[in-house]
Amino acid sequence: MRSLLIDAGNTSVKVALFEDGTLQPLFRIPTIRVLEHPADFVKKLRDITFNKLGVASVVKEITHLIEENFPGALIVSANLKLPIKIDYRTPELLGADRIAAACGGLEFADSFIVVSCGTATVVDLVEEKTFKGGVIFPGVETMAQLLNLKTSQLPKVNFEGEVKIPGRSTEECIQAGILASTIGGIKETIRNLPQHPLLITGGWGELVSRHVKGTYVPELVFKGILKILK
Question: Binding positions for substrate (predicted)?
């Protein structure tokens, strides 16, 4: 059995294949490229041999694209039969990535905290296999873009190399501020939650895992899609 898994986020679309107990990442494409060239993306998927298709998408256009071209695909949502319960006031607005990450966390424990570091930084609580909600604030890249867009002199920065506090240049000061805001926000959120194992994932998860004690699981969303697909 070959299961194709798609994690479609606001920044990038990740595709992996699960076969014979092994999860193999296949490729990553910028989301904007998929939106600009949807036919190319569909062709790329059709070139892969698979039996099942599971998708966690927070981009409506990509969700519709998959539904139109792959009618049998499983689209992750709170409406599905899930391995977790959803205790959330607006389940219809709960992101598929958050649902999938919460389901993926069951591989590690029944109660845990997920820190997803992407376009947004999200901290979610799962207790006794029940999703309890969390906190959402701007992600690392989003903060960097906003400071550049909303000011006349602050440059757009990247995060190659080690971030130093205090910064000794404008670029270093921005890096330090964004990292301090992110790490501080995560730690303050965790301080207000019950003590459970911490799982860190997302595009900025490796950076965050250097400063927050937890288990870095880059494939957590894929693991969750797979649990739902089974």
Answer: 88, 95-98, 170
